[in-house]
Amino acid sequence: MFITLSVACKEAYVPPIISSNNRYLVVEGFINNGADSTQFHLTRSYKLDDSASLQPELHAILNIEGKDNSSYPLVELGSGYYACPGLALNNAIKYRLHIRTSDGKQYLSDFVELKTSPPIDSISWVRNNDGLQIYCNAHDDQGTSRYYRFQYDETWQFNAVFYSGLEYVHDSLRNRAVNNMFTCWKTVSSTNILLASTAKLSKDVVQFPVVLVPSNSWMISIKYSIIVRQYVLTPDAYDFWSNLQKNSEQIGSLFSPEPFQSRGNIHSVSDSNELVIGYVSAGTMRQQRIFLTPYDIPNWIYGTYEDGCHLISIKNDPDTLQQYLSGFGYLPVDYDPTSGGGKPRVEVTFTVCADCTQIGSNTKPYFWP
Questions:
Q1: Nearest by Cα to 277 from 76, 46, 113
Q2: How far apart are the C-alpha atoms of 263 and 265, rounded to whole Å?
Q3: Beta-carbon contacts of residue 28 (< 8 Å; ≥ 6 apart)
Q4: I want to staple 240 with a disulfide (CB 3.0 to 4.6 A). Which of 70, 279, 313, 340 is the partner?
């Protein structure tokens, strides 16, 4: 008996936005009605199989326009960023974004209503087996918010693994007068799309898990800070971000939804078929910052940012010093206390282990206490 098997291979679906050679305009930003500035970032997309990266859209002209014919220009900051200082907009008026690129093309967003975010009640945290879960807590007694989006910036202070007390100058060692490589700060911003909806709840109350700091992370070794920004969206804006979230974060498994083109509310004036990526919302943003130290968190035993750091004892002679210290691979730490004698050996370590600027910045943030 012969059995014939028919085998069909499942072909990968490559959406037009990925396979096309077009470099679509990408618009990121929010019309902020308040003291904080309004900022937009314009870039051009690229294919997933392209070795290129996002290219900033330079020398564009941007304006916030109201239905009452009011207009607020944005100033180019460089690298595709455009901004204007705090706005005092009319809540009864709808607003849009008007873009004119350097090649003369014009793009308009739909007019959108201003959504006022309720105040953030608190930024709280819970210590669990996985680390430190940080939450944003808010509520709206009027029940008019319902759709939320969150962003955050984490900043933390840390020290280098080793303190470099020596420096190698003109082929010889000397005591380091000033060490500006030992204490640094590092900032990272949220990259995932963070959404919450209370539309199906009886009360407009949200406790959103913003970020999980891994257990005993070096991020909380001296002082850690997070600032959370909260936005309220229209139902249409929430649908856009929700679909984009599924498209960008859930692709990859057999049961994931297939990719699709997420059309926002920004359109080309001259070509209705041209895809523009992004969604312009407007309203009042709320934000709140907290600070934490390792002493605030039960059983927080932090490590270092580089696991492979160790000291190497080398001879204190010209050839050996030049071999290790004339390049950028090692830094001198101190004289080896175990070597004794009139010409003790020298302890060196990898540059990244004694120079925190390899990981962060030695400039103290303006908001740091």
A1: 46
A2: 7
A3: 40, 41, 42, 43, 278
A4: 279
Higher pLDDT, 361 or 6: 361
CB under 8 Å to 180, separation ≥6 — which residues?
357, 362
Q: Lowest-confidence range among 41-55, 129-143, 153-167?
A: 41-55
Specify the 3-state DSSP secondary structure of 49: coil
What is the spatial distance between Cα 315 and Cα 64, in angstroms, rounded to a whole number? 66
Pinpoint the alpha helices (H) of the chain. Answer: 16-19, 235-249, 318-325, 351-354
The one-letter amino acid code at 275 reads L
Closest alpha carbon to 232 in 285, 153, 287: 285
Looking at residues 115-125, what average pLDDT do you find? 98
Q: Which two tokens stand for residue 89?
A: 């907009």
CA distance 300 to 291: 15
Percent helix, strand, coil in the chain, to 5, is 10, 40, 50
| Nearest-angstrom CA–CA distance, 275 and 277 | 6
318, two tokens: 């010209």
Question: Residues with Cβ < 8 Å from 335, sequence gap 6 or more?
Answer: 166, 316, 344, 345, 346, 347
Q: Which residues, 6+ apart, have CB-to-CB distance to 72 below 8 Å?
A: 38, 63, 64, 65, 84, 87
